[in-house]
Amino acid sequence: MGMSMEKVEKRIVEFIRDYVRSANAEGVVLGVSGGVDSACVAFLCSKALGGENVLGLIMPEKGVTREEDVEDAIEVCKKAGIKYKIVEISDILQKFKGISSCDRDIALANLKPRIRMVLNYYYANCLNRIVAGTGNKSELMVGYFTKYGDGGCDFLPIGDLYKTEVFMLAEHLGVPERVIKKKPSAGLWVGQTDEDEMGISYKVLDAILKRIERGEIEKAIEEFGKDSVDKVRDMIARSEHKRSLPMAVSLRDLLD
Ligand SMILES: Nc1ncnc2c1ncn2[C@@H]1O[C@H](COP(=O)(O)OP(=O)(O)OC[C@H]2O[C@@H]([n+]3cccc(C(=O)O)c3)[C@H](O)[C@@H]2O)[C@@H](O)[C@H]1O
Ligand SMILES: Nc1ncnc2c1ncn2[C@@H]1O[C@H](COP(=O)(O)OP(=O)(O)OP(=O)(O)O)[C@@H](O)[C@H]1O
Ligand SMILES: [Mg+2]
Q1: CA–CA separation, 153 vs 135, rounded Å?
Q2: Protein residues whose CB sits closer than 6 Å to any atom of ligand 1
Q3: Record-annotated residues binding deamido-NAD(+) (predicted)?
Q4: Ligand 1, atom 40: nearest CA belongs to which residue?
Q5: In angstroms, what is the span from residue 210 Cα to ligand 3's centroid?
Q6: Residue 97 belongs to what domain range?
Q7: Domain check: are 155 and 125 in the same one?
Q8: Within this chain, do residues 124 and 217 fall inside the same structural domain, yes or no?
Q9: ipTM beyond 0.90?
Q10: In DSSP terms, which residues pair with 162 in a beta bridge?
Q11: Which of 57, 166, 184, 234 has CA atoms 20 to 30 A from the CA of 46?
């Protein structure tokens, strides 16, 4: 596994370098949360572009983002050797809340990644840079991200790695142990964890997703049961709209 992570690192670093160059950009911007996904992307971008060309935005929310996560995010940026800025999002969030009341908690929760996305692009535009996404293959396949929130980015360095593989890469890259050890969380409300919200562990989710990707549905059902496999297939189907461009009705046959 050591050897394969070496190769994975090399492939991703080359991808980042080539992609940023082909975009005529002078570097990248990314949100750094203190979680393992953004830590890996920060380390990889730094290796590819040099730390001075990578800006990590640490965007905590008062009362929701844990102090420990902010400390970890700072440590990640320092260890990766990238520049960073801390931008509090609570005031911006308050402004939105003032516009209209909404009793659906998820609407307010999704505002947070969307505000972070706007800030990433503001800095990217200012600096002639592009936005590095931190989505992994597990999240992308089941749609566990906010559409045009953390889903809003220009390229996906770890988008072909399942979450369980992201952990292996993190070990290989030397991401701080505390970041690797903590439970994955979107951090949208106090106490949120990915596995509780999705109702499945990443270990099982990734094993099922790998079977589905290879078309081995029967094997997946044998190993994990029909209910779990149906649940995952349903998550994939229901989130198709997040992975494709907005659909337009075709009219060319009427007009050309
Ligand atoms: N069939 C369809 N065709 C086209 N568009 C469709 C659609 N169905 C819904 N939509 C649109 O999509 C919206 C729903 O999607 P969205 O707004 O994303 O909202 P939704 O998928 O309900 O929520 C986002 C989920 O991602 C999780 N998350 C968010 C951020 C970060 C992380 C993390 O792991 O760090 C996880 C979050 O905890 C929550 O479970 C609808 O309001 C509608 O606008
Ligand atoms: N407080 C924050 N400051 C800056 N960026 C954030 C913050 N919270 C979330 N983000 C951005 O949203 C992305 C999606 O969050 P997600 O939780 O999936 O990844 P992670 O926090 O890096 O890793 P983990 O899933 O292990 O928590 C993060 O990688 C980061 O880019
Ligand atoms: Mg997180």
Answers
A1: 9
A2: 106, 110, 113, 139, 144-147, 149-150, 186, 188, 194, 197, 241
A3: 114, 147, 154, 241-242
A4: 144
A5: 23
A6: 2-190
A7: yes
A8: no
A9: yes
A10: none
A11: 184
